[in-house]
Amino acid sequence: MRHVSVDQVAAEEEASMASGPMPPTEPSSGSPSSELAALYRRQRAPMVRLARLFTGSNAVAEEVVQEAFLRMHQQRARPDNPEGYLRTTVANISRSHMRRLRLERRLPAQDRATFDDPVIDETWAAVCRLPFRQRAVLALRFYEDMDQAEIARVLGCRVGTVKSSLHRGLSKLREELS
Q: Of 26, 60, 65, whose CA–CA distance to 44 is shortest?
């Protein structure tokens, strides 16, 4: 099996863009590697932003997304919903990273990003102090605009857990920011 890195996919993308615009292909008619390259072009940046919201780090987000694309490439059968599979994989890898980090540090992860606007700084710091599940639910709800059933499917939990995590996360943010 051929392993593909994100750098290889990016190089293929640059080469295809240099040769001019290509006509759109049907998803079923393209080769698996061209479908993965097209998915990479469409979803890489949004998935990096999503992973950034989960992990609080650009560097970790890049690694998470690269790992998600590699896992997708290694799948024998093409997923029915590649975007959903990718989003779920990013969420799961991010969750695993945060668990490892918590075990290593025994402290909640702190964000080191700073913003010019003090309100954004304060809000972002409060979001980063939330437990992973609450932060993930808030990111999927308000950043990805997913409904509660979709969030439950992505995070592998019940809809009731999503509802309570959303309520608790918003309550903690309101409490800290008032």
A: 65
**Residue 152 region by backbone torsions, left for phi larger than 0, else alpha for psi between -120 and 50, else beta:** alpha
> How far, in Å, CA of 116 to CA of 48, rounded?
22
All residues at 6 or more sequence positions from 86 whose CB lies less than 8 Å from its CB, including other chains: 39, 43, 47, 68, 69, 72
pLDDT per residue as tens digits for the range 100-112: 887 777 654 454 5
- How much is the pTM? 0.52
**Tokens 């710091």 sit on residue:** 125
Q: Is 162 exposed, middle or buried (0-12, 13-18, 19+ CB in 10 A)?
A: buried
Go through the domains of the chain in sequence order and give each one's CATH number: 1-20+31-109 (no CATH), 111-178 (1.10.10.10)
For 134, list phi and psi in degrees, rounded to 5: -65, -45
